[in-house]
Structures are given as C-alpha cells and as structure tokens.
Design a protein that fits this description.
about 500 residues, Aspartate Aminotransferase, domain 1, alpha/beta, Aspartate Aminotransferase, domain 2
Length: about 500
C-alpha cells in the first residue's frame, strides 16, 4: 500500500462513506490533474466523470484560473469581510447581480386577489463557504424577514420530497431524504414537503416502461402540480401561509438526478408567488451553465446570460443560492443573492440590533473571488458556449446506446447532467435494494476502467467538466456500459 494511502487509513474520516468498507482496500490517492484527466500517485490516469463531486467547470489545472489566483496571491490572499471590503469580492458581487437579473423573464404575475407582482431584482450578495451555508443564509434571511415584516405569521417552509439542500442543521431541516437526515431529526425544526415530479416512478404516470426518458412518454395530467397547489391553498386557508418555497430548479441532484418535466417549475413557482411565498432557488449544483446551453446562444458569447437553471423557465427567485462551480471548482466559496426588500429589513440603528448576525471567517475571500471572476470570463466566451453545446449533444448521443442494457431502467439528461438508473428488471421498473450496492459496484468497475464517478443510490451520475472532449465522453459512457454488464450481469 502506498504510504499516503496508509496515512489516509490511519487518520482521515471521509464524508458520506462507510469507513469499515473504506479500510478494506487501498484508496485511489489523486495527485495531479489536467483538463478532464486526473492522475494518482502511482501514475494511473482517470477521467473525471463527475467533475470532482459536481464542482469543476472548465477542467483541472486551467491556465487562466491558475494565473488569476497567482496574480491575487501577489497582492493579498485573505482579509476579513467583517468591517472591510476588497476588490475581487466587490467585482464578483456586481458580476453575479448582473447575471441574476436577465431581461428574459416575463412581466408581472397576478396573485389570487388580482394584484400584480413584478419579478424581484436580486441586488444584494452575501458570501459564504459552500452550498450548505448558502442555503443556511437564505433560510435565516427569509425566516427573519418574515418575522419582521409579518410578525403575526409564524415562518414555515415548504420543500420537495427527496430534497437535499446541505448538511448544516438549517439546511438539513429543509431536506427530505431519510437516509441522510433521520439520525438528526431531534436537532431539526419542522418543514413541510410536497410531491416532486419523478416521471419514471410517478404513481400518476399511466405509461408502460419504454426505452426512452420517462419525461418524453409519460401519461399524466400534472397531478404533481395540483398537489403543490392544494398544499399552498390549504396552508393559506389556515391563515398561516408559507414563508418560502425551496427548490432545485430543473433537476434534483442528491435525490437521484431527478429532472422536472418542461413547464413544471414555471407552474409551481407561479402558484407559490400567488400564495404569498418567497422563492428560494438552490442552484448549488445547477448553476453556471450545468443544465445546458440554448442552441441560439452557441455561436456568439452572451455576456452573463444563461448561467442559471431558473432562467430556462423564466423564473426569478427571491433568494438564489450558489456554490460548487462558483470558483470553477477551485476553492470553497458560495453566495446567496437576495432583494433590496430583504436587505432593508435588516437596516436600523446600532442599538436596534437589526444586524444580520451571521458570518464566516473566509467570507468574500480574495482568492476564491479571483478564481470565480476568471471562471466566469471563461464561461461567457464564445468558445466555451460552443464547446458546451457540442459536449451536451455528444453526451446525449452516447447515452442513447445504453438503452440496449436490460439493467438500465431510465436515462435522464439535463444539459451536462446525466443520471442512469439501474434496475433489476426494466420492464417492471424493479429497483435494486440499496443494500445490494448496485450503483457502488458499477462505479467501482468504472474506476478499474479509468473513469471516476460516484453513484446516488442506484443512479450512476455522469457530469463531465466542460472541457471534456467527445472522445472522452464516449469513453466514459463505454466504461459505464461495460461496468454495468461486469457488475450486474447481462
């Protein structure tokens, strides 16, 4: 065993990992990276098929991001945001605000009473460290905003079945994955959940299984939308309307890469707005182009446009939580964007104690902000747009070949996010028991073939960096196909 692997076994406790299993074999110890390729301490190369847990946008060791960090290192690596400002964070905040307010969303909406609501403008940025803290900030702000502006209304939050919004206590309370959250139930405050669209396993979908994405052949009448409407209506009638509706737009990640059918997001957010709820969009995974590039933008750079999944359905939230890809996957950094109305509720004299009492030591750190600015420059270039469009098309073409595998039940792709659900029998949608470790076994077989990813239960995730070549994408999918037959049988 390599000396570094021995040190890892001796001292490191890994997240979301059963350490008894981990200690049974020598881990892959990664040492270098270039583009979509990672290299371990023994010199073996692997394709990074999940962008290093969904964070890396443009590939490893990117020269432009490296140079931006080096330039900032020559100035100042970190100073406190508690009482001080800095250049890269100020520039980054302005850039995010510009991107979060495109002129693509529709005009005003009507509430149930007939009054009109204009889409909110996101103009204030609170920096934090990661996706969990970005959601924690949104949760605290929405909670306190409601207490200050509607003191007679107790704050209450609605999120989706299968929701995962992070691992801090507030973010866990918003989540509804028992496997992750059951152990901490005694620490949590109560939130409500409502049915999320899961076309492949929806009880209202009357269609028989086909060898195609279930969203495309489903037979239903938007029962999932009606359930959301009833939940809001019942809460409003009780005189205790929801404070906010929390959602991942277009696709739920940790739930199993569950995509929403076209139109669902727009419908349910209009329902939430009409019932007085604010919208909290968790774009930790989906942000910065991950959910796709519209073909109309592929030939020319479109500055600061189409970064966020919400924009695909012209939804403008009150809180926008960002992390993961914010720095291109280089450094931990997050941001929560919100409106002037929320910001102003925290303004007052010093002795009024209206301050937002929340913060992090590395909030708005210069190195993270410098990396983020460089990443965003790359993201909005014409070359990046063309490459991403080509990549998502190639990924879709390659994934189509997996329908021949009887152990593949559903293939779900949203832009550069793909989930392949493994089943015992595709004709009956019969799942594997989680204790059989079907997804883990397939990913272990993929690693032996030089492709690294991590499953979500029985769903194998493919989420390549944007620099991945067509040949590399095809190799990822081929490794997956071979590994399914190797681990689960033909």
């Amino acid at each position: 065993m390599h000396p570094l692997a021995k040190l890892d076994h001796r001292h490191v406790w890994h997240p979301f990992t059963q350490m008894r299993d981990w200690l049974k074999q020598e881990p892959i110890v990664l040492a270098e990276g270039q583009g979509a390729v990672l290299r371990d301490v023994r010199g073996r190369e692997y394709l990074d098929a999940n962008s290093s847990i969904w964070t890396n946008l443009h590939g490893h060791n990117h020269p432009e991001i490296n140079a931006a960090i080096r330039r900032q290192l020559g100035k100042l690596a970190h100073s406190s945001a508690l009482g001080f400002a800095n250049e890269p964070a100020s520039l980054l905040a302005a850039r995010l605000v510009k991107a979060a307010n495109p002129h693509t969303h529709r005009g005003s909406l009507k509430t149930r009473s007939g009054s009109e609501l204009s889409p909110p403008r996101l103009s204030k940025v609170f920096f934090s460290d990661d996706g969990s803290t970005a959601l924690e900030v949104a949760l605290k702000l929405a909670y306190e905003f409601t207490r200050r502006t509607c003191p007679s209304t107790p704050p209450r939050f609605l999120s989706l079945e299968g929701a995962y919004h992070g691992d801090t206590v507030g973010a866990v309370a918003l989540g509804h994955i028992d496997l992750f959250h059951r152990a901490y139930s005694g620490l949590l405050f109560r939130t409500d959940k409502v049915m999320a669209p899961y076309c492949y396993r929806c009880p209202f979908n009357q269609a028989k299984p086909e060898r195609a994405d279930a969203r495309d052949y489903r037979v239903c009448h938007w029962e999932c939308v009606r359930k959301v409407a009833r939940r809001f209506e019942n809460r409003r009638r009780s005189g205790k309307p929801y404070t906010a509706f929390v959602f991942e737009p277009l696709v739920q990640g940790a739930a199993g890469i569950i995509p929403q059918p076209s139109g669902w997001l727009r419908q349910v957010t209009e329902i939430a707005r009409a019932n007085g709820a604010q919208l909290i969009a968790d774009e930790v995974m989906t942000g910065f182009g991950r959910t796709g590039v519209p073909a109309v933008t592929s030939q020319h750079a479109v500055p600061d446009a189409w970064w966020f999944a919400c924009q695909a359905e012209q939804v403008q939230p009150d809180f926008l939580a960002l992390a993961k890809g914010l720095t291109g996957g280089y450094l931990p950094m997050a941001a929560t964007l919100t409106t002037p109305a929320v910001f102003e509720a925290f303004l007052g004299e010093y002795d009024e104690l209206k301050t937002f009492f929340h913060g992090h030591s590395f909030t708005a750190n210069q190195l993270g902000a410098a990396a983020a600015l460089a990443s965003l420059d790359i993201l909005t270039s014409a070359a990046s747009l063309r490459a991403r469009l080509r990549l998502q098309q190639t990924l879709g073409e390659a994934l189509a070949g997996l329908w021949t595998l009887p152990k593949v039940g559903d293939i779900r792709q949203v832009g550069l996010v793909a989930g392949i659900e493994l089943v015992r029998n595709w004709k009956r949608r019969e799942p594997f028991d989680l204790r059989e470790r079907a997804g883990v076994r397939v990913c272990e077989a993929m690693a032996r073939r030089g492709v690294l990813t991590r499953p979500v239960g029985n769903v194998v995730v493919l989420m390549p960096p944007y620099c991945t070549t067509p040949a590399q994408v095809r190799r990822m999918v081929t490794a997956l196909a071979d590994s399914v037959e190797d681990a689960l049988g033909k």
